[in-house]
């Protein structure tokens, strides 16, 4: 019985939109007939077109496509390539840095408990089984424990520089695309302006429509380059702040590890 009721409800839901659409279609046909009659009655009145409605119907994607074509794909394509490559590097860095984030307090507590229960080897096992640059630095420091605390500190500092270089990997490419995109846009603008002046010279007369059209097309490449640079700059600043946060955690955790090792050595 419940299945039968559900089937009837589903049929009603499916039939309601169809009925509504049919009513809407009838209403649209009636309105079209009335509009036709009005137009036939007063053929001298000009038709009014709402530009805002037409712009909304185009959609953002269509507008971008049209502007890309107007700006000449020959000069807009390099700017688009800069955006694609820059976003690819930025997204890869974001994923890598988020995976490199480690709960340093939890790791330090595990290392301290392992030192108390199983010694240096147990602490090494904990750090080796933990992912992230902080755990790698801890492993290098623990490997030098038998050579003294000073060697532990030197090892942590040296390997910390290596891990910092790995975290900053790829930022130079994003910085390159940030600088390159506006340059390519300006180059397209200059070339477009040269083409516009060549057209003026060939025509032998300065036509406002000719000059305005050429300048408009030329400036689109500059706008595209600036937009790409702004987008990539936001990602670049986020990555720099993320790296700074990770480096600060590495430094604080390294100092805490040295303190734990000194305490462990004195307790023997």
TrEMBL record:
Chief location bin: membrane
Domain of life per record: Bacteria
Membrane-traversing stretches: 75-95, 171-197, 217-240
Keywords: Cell membrane, Membrane, Protein transport, Signal, Transmembrane, Transmembrane helix, Transport
Membrane topology field: Multi-pass membrane protein
Pfam annotation, one family: MotA_ExbB
Record domain MotA/TolQ/ExbB proton channel: where: 131-251
GO cellular component: plasma membrane
Keyword Transmembrane: yes
UniProt record similarity statement: Belongs to the exbB/tolQ family.
Record-given protein name: MotA/TolQ/ExbB proton channel family protein
Organism of this sequence: Aquiflexum gelatinilyticum
């Amino acid at each position: 019985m419940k299945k039968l009721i559900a089937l009837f409800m589903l049929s009603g839901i499916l039939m309601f939109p169809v009925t509504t659409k049919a009513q809407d279609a009838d209403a649209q046909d009636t309105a079209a007939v009335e509009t036709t009659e009005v137009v036939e009655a007063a053929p001298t009145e000009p038709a009014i077109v709402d530009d805002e409605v037409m712009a909304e119907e185009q959609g953002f994607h269509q507008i971008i496509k049209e502007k890309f074509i107007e700006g000449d794909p020959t000069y807009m394509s390099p700017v688009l390539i800069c955006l694609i490559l820059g976003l690819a590097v930025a997204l890869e860095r974001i994923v890598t840095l988020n995976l490199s984030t480690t709960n340093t307090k939890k790791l330090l507590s595990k290392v301290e408990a392992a030192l108390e229960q199983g010694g240096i080897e147990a602490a090494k096992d904990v750090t080796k089984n933990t992912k992230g640059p902080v755990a790698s630095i801890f492993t290098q420091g623990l490997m030098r424990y038998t050579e003294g605390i000073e060697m532990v500190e030197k090892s942590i500092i040296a390997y910390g520089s290596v891990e910092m270089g790995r975290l900053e990997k790829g930022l130079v490419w994003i910085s390159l695309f940030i600088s390159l995109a506006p340059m390519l846009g300006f180059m397209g603008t200059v070339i477009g302006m040269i083409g516009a002046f060549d057209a003026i010279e060939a025509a032998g007369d300065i036509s406002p429509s000719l000059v305005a059209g050429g300048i408009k097309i030329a400036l689109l490449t500059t706008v595209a380059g600036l937009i790409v640079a702004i987008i990539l700059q936001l990602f670049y600043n986020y990555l720099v702040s993320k790296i700074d946060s990770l480096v600060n955690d590495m430094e604080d955790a390294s100092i805490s590890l040295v303190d734990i090792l000194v305490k462990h050595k004195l307790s023997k």
